[in-house]
Amino acid sequence: MNKNSLVILSFAAIILLGLNIASAMVVNSVTSDKIYPGQSGQVSMKVENTLSVDAQDVSISLNLANTGFSTEGSSEKSVDHIDNEDEENFKFILKAAPNTKTGDYNIPYTLTYYLEGLNGTLIPSIKTGTFGITVIAQTELQYDILTENNIIGQKGKATVQITNKGLGDIGFASVRILSENGVELIGLDNQYIGTVRSDDSGTATFDVVYKSENAQVTAEITYKDSENNAQTETVVLPIKAYTPERALELGLVQKNYTWVYVTIIIVLIIIYIIYKRVKKAKKKNGLR
């Protein structure tokens, strides 16, 4: 074989090897557990060898700098080889920081492997990419009822308050009053709240008439959690109401002195009228 033929064959082999190196290894799929803020979940990466040559010293590492994530254990996994048309699962335990917001994140990775060259030497190849994971939050809601003018026999307001103590938002929240005891609902029994963000609250206010000191309402709360799943909760909320006398003792209302002022004014007007008439009568008698 002459020198030119050897150069051509060598060049062709290099091209073929380069094509193998460029496409031999594929991250075929990535699956992960549910990951919550401050908690861990397993991530499994399936690496497939799609060519007819074996890959040696295969490793994959996660590049977690500035991502808000860390690993429990090593951030790099490796195997001695992946045979042609075979695959291997690389598993990591990924942990989200406690203050991680809910949403989608891209995790960068580096895939390194070696293919055997013409003279038996191992030629390295490096591929980089990203895969996506979703951080979700456990829903933690607190329900309270706030009152206004909660005096028996009077019209007032009852407000159902939803406080979102979790790290994820809830959406499309609404409150429906299913039943009431010791309090009469006036008007609509359903109120729409909408989005209640993390560390915030939303309210639904209803017009009521209080009828007894120990009342309660049963409310149905519907919303969509951070995974966009529809949720329904039923809660019983106690309400404390007061008699007018007790409300006065507690300073919840001020004593009404209007009738006293009106009586005094009327008496003064009567006295004035009597005075004018007496004065007028005396004046007439004096003229005679």
Q: What is the structure about, briefly put?
A:
The protein has 288 residues and is α+β, with helices and mostly antiparallel strands. It is built from three helices and 16 strands.
Tell me about this structure.
The chain is of the alpha+beta class. The protein folds into two domains: 30-135, Sandwich (Immunoglobulin-like), CATH 2.60.40; 141-249, Sandwich (Immunoglobulin-like). The protein has helices at 3-23, 244-249, 258-287, and strands at residues 25-32, 40-49, 55-62, 69-71, 76-82, 87-96, 103-116, 122-135, 141-148, 155-164, 170-181, 183-186, 190-196, 200-210, 214-224, 230-240. The protein has a four-stranded antiparallel sheet. Strands 5-3-7-8 form a four-stranded antiparallel sheet.
Q: How does the SSE layout of this entry go?
A:
Layout (H helix, E strand, L loop, with lengths): L2 H21 L1 E8 L7 E10 L5 E8 L6 E3 L4 E7 L4 E10 L6 E14 L5 E14 L5 E8 L6 E10 L5 E12 L1 E4 L3 E7 L3 E11 L3 E11 L5 E11 L3 H6 L8 H30 L1
Q: Percent of residues in helical segments?
A: 10-25%
Radius of gyration: 40 Å
Task: Average the pLDDT over all residues and give the rounded result.
Answer: 85
Q: How many domains?
A: 2
